[in-house]
Design a protein that fits this description.
By secondary structure, the protein is of the alpha/beta class. It is built from 9 helices and 13 strands.
Length: 279
């Protein structure tokens, strides 16, 4: 079994592993000479092991692993990165990982494959810089998808490794809609025209996609607010606020089917934000 991979530049290679929803999940290798850092460790052990074999075939030395956020489809493979002791994340990631219940995942796995959470041991803050040979990775704290979300900016390459801050449809169930709008605008400003964004799920996009992402969240907030102010229940809101109401026809046709469920959860999250309630 081979992972789909794409060489984005001489220094950056993206691999895609499996996800239960069928949307794929990315892991990105940043290399300079024979040294490499890896963004995210995938969900399933078979995929992580295949990723590590691919990196070995590239004759690279893994100097560290970076978790863009706490979700297990980006961190479950941490335990298999035996070549490095450095696991890097935002300071909020550790506690969020420890609170996660992986029972559902381990039920799917053989005993020898079960996930034993391996937590980050090195923290970065907004604007922290990591050197990879001659390359510099600047970290941006981009909350919204989750509170701990970070992205990696390769200025010389004009590439941002976005984790789930940028995916095929913004997802805020574990985060905050206003924060994600601000983070998307920040990513767009940083990468500028002609830059490339590696999404946590989905292909590589340009900064122009983020205009559509921001419009989606702003439109969704507006429509859900109307339901909330009219005294409609959350059930009525999730039934009534359709994805087609919040994106253009062209964008709607490009969004994979599984994201319809993501949209419903986004409606629920924004309704809860308006009521200042935890869900």
């Amino acid at each position: 079994m081979g992972l789909a991979q794409r060489k984005v530049s001489e220094s950056v290679t993206v691999f895609e592993g499996r996800h239960p929803l069928g949307v794929g999940v990315t892991s990105t290798v940043v290399q300079s000479g024979k040294d490499a850092f890896v963004f995210d460790s995938m969900l399933y052990p078979e995929d992580t092991l295949e990723l590590l074999r691919s990196i070995s075939h590239m004759s690279l030395n893994i100097k560290g692993l970076i978790n863009t956020h706490w979700h297990c489809d980006h961190t479950a493979g941490n335990q298999l990165f035996l070549q490095t002791k450095r696991i890097i994340s935002h300071s909020l990631c550790n506690d969020l990982m420890r609170a996660d219940d992986l029972t559902w995942l381990n039920k799917e796995l053989k005993e020898e494959e079960k996930v034993r959470p391996t937590y980050p041991n090195e923290m970065v803050a907004d604007r922290s810089v990591l050197a990879v040979g001659n390359l510099r990775i600047e970290f941006l704290h981009t909350p919204g998808h989750t509170p701990d979300s970070i992205t990696g900016w390769l200025k010389d390459e004009r590439i941002i490794i976005a984790g789930d801050t940028v995916i095929e449809l913004p997802y805020i169930w574990y985060g905050d809609s206003k924060a994600l709008i601000e983070s998307l605008k920040r990513v767009q400003t940083v990468v500028g025209g002609g830059g490339r964004i590696i999404q946590g799920h989905g292909g590589i996009c340009g900064s122009e996609k983020l205009d559509s992402d921001v419009r989606y969240i702003e439109s969704l907030r507006s429509v859900v607010t109307e339901y909330f102010n009219a005294g409609k229940t959350i059930k009525e809101a999730t039934a009534g606020v359709k994805l087609a109401d919040c994106v253009s026809k062209e964008r709607l046709e490009s969004i994979p089917k599984p994201y319809e469920g993501v949209h419903v959860e986004n409606v629920e999250r924004i309704y809860a934000e308006l009521g200042n309630k935890m869900i």
